[in-house]
Amino acid sequence: KQWYQRRVAITVGEIATMKHTLSIDKAKPSLYLRMVAENLKETVAFKWDTVTALQVQSLTLHSPEAISRHLARANPDAGLYGSTLLQQAEVDHWIWYGLNKFGHGDFNTSIRYCDEVLAQNSFMVGST
After folding, report:
1. Beta-strand (E) ranges in 40-84?
2. Which pLDDT tens digit goes with each residue over 80-116?
3. Where are the alpha helices (DSSP H) in 9-106?
């Protein structure tokens, strides 16, 4: 356990100054990850590849959920992850929903759900 903690010990500030390279599987592209990469183009280089992956030091992330969360958390100035625990929980919900539910079933049901939830809000994302 101590070896693992020392091996991956890195601060958010150190991560934010790194240039990440995000590879997205061309055969099964994640539109969501492509949008995250576009919003973070100052710190994330994007390329098409045969697998989806993000290399962070000696660790490689493959799941779009883990990659999305890591990039949002590692770049707090971008405002993609919210500033309160409640906002972060809501972002986690939409990451999960967008990658697991939306478009993986009845499209009309997904749209109705989004309409019901988002009708209560005047906007879905913050302004810049």
Report:
1. 44-49, 53-56, 59-61
2. 888 899 989 988 888 787 777 765 667 777 778 878 8
3. 12-17, 31-39, 64-74, 85-100
